[in-house]
Amino acid sequence: MNQKRGKRNGRISETNTRPAPARLDAGKGDRRTNDALPLDGRIIQPDRKHWLDYITALLGFIAAITGFGAAGFSGWQAWIAYQGTIVANRAFVLSNSFQYITYQEPTESNRIWIASPLIENSGNTQTRRMTTFTQGYVGLPGGFPWDDSTKQQPRANRLIGPKGSSVAQTVGATPESFNQMQSGPKLGAAGIIRYQDIFGGWHLTEYCYFARPMTHFDFKAFPSNQPVRAEGQLCDQHNCADEECGPDWLKRAME
After folding, report:
1. Residue that terminates a domain, selected from 56, 88, 120
2. 134 near 168, Cβ under 8 Å?
3. Which end of the chain has less Cβ packing within 10 Å, N or C?
4. pTM higher than 0.70 for the full model?
5. Which domain holds residue 62?
6. pLDDT tens digit string along 178-197?
7. Closest to 120 measured CA to CA, from 231, 40, 21, 44
8. Are residues 140 and 248 in the same domain?
9. Is residue 168 part of a domain?
10. Contact at 8 Å (CB) between 185 and 138?
């Protein structure tokens, strides 16, 4: 019994007395310490740990740069969308046709027709601070000279709503006179339009054109109170908008 117990005790003592892993003492000249030993017994060299730190920092830096780039790209997209909204909805004013109308019946002996350059806003919003200056001509055979003194000329203040129109300087004449203009001297108009859109942008429009002949139109017999539109034949110059009107267009628009 004692021997068996002794053997058992001996086995137990062998198991219990197995030498434990030696601790490395950094104070005795060994550079490694128990803190450098992972659970599986492998040793991670300090240099490898430094490289892992460098890679982690680099990846973090790349992620930060990517985030800044994404934010900048989003801001650029928002700016492009805003500019697109302005272009799609701002007021755009032009003039390229005449409007004829009479308020007297064909049977009246003193019947008078009125011809006016038609100023239109093709945009989706109204105009602001809009002024116009118009010169009317009759009987000029070709492109008439541009009057550079328009800065000193009186201007008309106007407001045109979205998809709206307004008439400028009017010319009144008898049906016989307008019938003669269809085959003889032409009726013409030229002018400058200055205005601001609701987004704060300033704009400038120049126009110059003659009324196209309406050879099959009878000014004597046509009913009253029905406006008639005559498309304009553009002059060689002075049909432009904003940058097309020269490098000083913005200064002229704000004058």
Report:
1. 88
2. yes
3. N
4. no
5. 45-88
6. 888 877 777 888 889 999 99
7. 231
8. yes
9. yes
10. yes
